[in-house]
């Protein structure tokens, strides 16, 4: 597994967060505070989320989802998996897409599209967004921890996040974004390897430094 962090991208990429429930605003807050331009969208009119976003992530721009995707370099999927099928794959062509979604039948129910034990959920997301480059991360940290778990680079107890993808450049960009937000990263070389990040896996919900995280996903 790769455990060095690539340099911070300049200028910072424009990021669109799809989902404005629990996870989306928490992501928008830490991303804007790290200096990234961020748009955020729910499923409908941005006016409906403008007031709550003015409190939760005031520097993020509420947008219609289609506009947020179009203007973004990187799109973060922070919507429930059962709403994934609503998305139009054509809009994601050429985008780096960070998939934070989890398939968790005990709480969310069985979904036929994702109920395949031989594939990770992000591999299925990749198959349905063929023009996009999917990176799996941020699914294994609670939304309420995203703010408080941030640490400056070099801090001895800095938390590590796993970054899994088939495209090394997209994974490196994602790792650099997370570093600037306040996290170390361990890069897993494929989306298939990212199954280790899923619910029930060795690092799901775990607050681990980079060495410990690397040991857990390598064993
Ligand atoms: N909860 C956590 O700690 C955590 C941590 C990591 C990852 N995740 C993952 O994050 C995802 C979201 O979880 P959550 O707890 O934040 O859900 P949530 O509170 O139910 O929020 C869901 C949001 O997704 C929006 N949405 C639905 N369809 C959409 C679409 N087509 N385009 C844009 N936005 C859409 C909803 O907008 P409307 O209200 O307009 O429908 C709502 O704002 C899940 O896949 C979960 O596995 C959660």
Describe this structure in words.
The protein has helices spanning 23-33, 47-56, 65-71, 105-108, 121-128, 168-181, 210-218; strands at residues 15-18, 38-41, 61-62, 74-77, 96-99, 133-136, 160-165, 184-188. With 219 residues, it is of the alpha/beta class. An eight-stranded mixed beta sheet has the order 3-2-1-4-5-6-7-8, sandwiched between helices. Helix 2 (47-56) links the parallel strand 2 and strand 3. The radius of gyration is 16 Å and the shape is globular. The mean pLDDT is 95. Bound molecules: NADP nicotinamide-adenine-dinucleotide phosphate.
Compact description:
The chain has 219 residues and is α/β, with parallel strands linked by helices. The chain has helices at 23-33, 47-56, 65-71, 105-108, 121-128, 168-181, 210-218; strands spanning 15-18, 38-41, 61-62, 74-77, 96-99, 133-136, 160-165, 184-188. The model has no long low-confidence stretch (mean pLDDT 95).
